[in-house]
Amino acid sequence: MNSFIYQVHLNFKRLVWRNLKFFFFNLLLPLAFYLLFTKVMTVEMPKEALIVWKEDYLISMIIYSMLLSAVISVSNTFHDDNKQHFTLFVELSPVSKIRYYVSTLLVFITMSSLSTLGLSISGIIINQINFSSSAWLFLIILLPIIASPLMLIGIMISFSDSSNVINLLSNLIVFPMAIFSGLWFPLEILPKWIQKIGSYLLPYHLAELSKNICHNSLTLNKMNVLYIILWTSLLGILTWIINTFQNKKELHRL
Length: 254
What we know:
Helix content is 81%, strand content 0%. Helix 6 runs antiparallel to helix 10 and helix 7 (150-158) packs parallel to helix 11. The chain has eleven helices and no strands. The longest helix is centred in the first third of the chain and has 37 residues, at 47-83. By secondary structure, the protein is mainly α. It is a multi-pass membrane protein. The chain crosses the membrane at residues 20-37, 57-79, 100-129, 135-159, 166-185, 225-245.
C-alpha cells in the first residue's frame, strides 16, 4: 500500500508539476467559455432563467474540463510514456502495469477535482452560484470519479504510434462530442438529428445527472445512471480489445 501511495505521489510530480500547461489548459478554456456565455451572451434573458442558466452552464463547463483532461491530456501522457520507454521500465520493474494505469488515472482524477474546484470558485465569485454543500461535494469529489470512464477514450487513442494522429483524433473526438452533448450550447437549440445523437453520449448523461443532483437534492435519474454504466462497460471492453491487439502487434515486431 505504501509503495502504491509513493507511486501516485511520483506520478503526480511527474505529470502535474512538470506539465502545468495541461492543468491550466483544462481550467482556462472552460472558464473562458463560462465567462462568454454567462456574462456576454445573456443580455435579454429573464432573471430567473438566467440564474438556472449560470448554474447549468457551470456544470457543463466542469464536464467539458474533464473531457479535455480525459481525452487530450491522458492520450498525450500515455503516448509520451511509451515514446520515452517509461512503460517499458514499468514492464521490467516489479510494479504491475495495471497499478501503473490505476495510479496514473488517480492523478488525473485529482487534476479533475482541482479543475472543478477552480471553476466552482469562479462560479461563486463571478455569478454567485449557490448550490448546497452536498451538491458542491458531489461536483468536486464524486463527479471526477464517475466521469473517469472518459479516460478510457484517451487510453485507446494513446495506442496510436504517431503524436500527430493522437492530436488529430483527440480534437476530432473532444470538440464534436462537446457540441453534440450540449456542453457548449443547449441541446434544445441544436438540430433534431444532433439532439438524437447527443442524448446517447456519455458527457450528456454526466451533465444531466449532475444537474439533477444539484437542483433536486441528490436525486438520481436511473436512465442517466444506466447510460453511464453501459458506456463504462463498452469503453472498458474496447480498451481491452485494442490493448490486446496492440500487444500482439508488438510481439510480431519482435
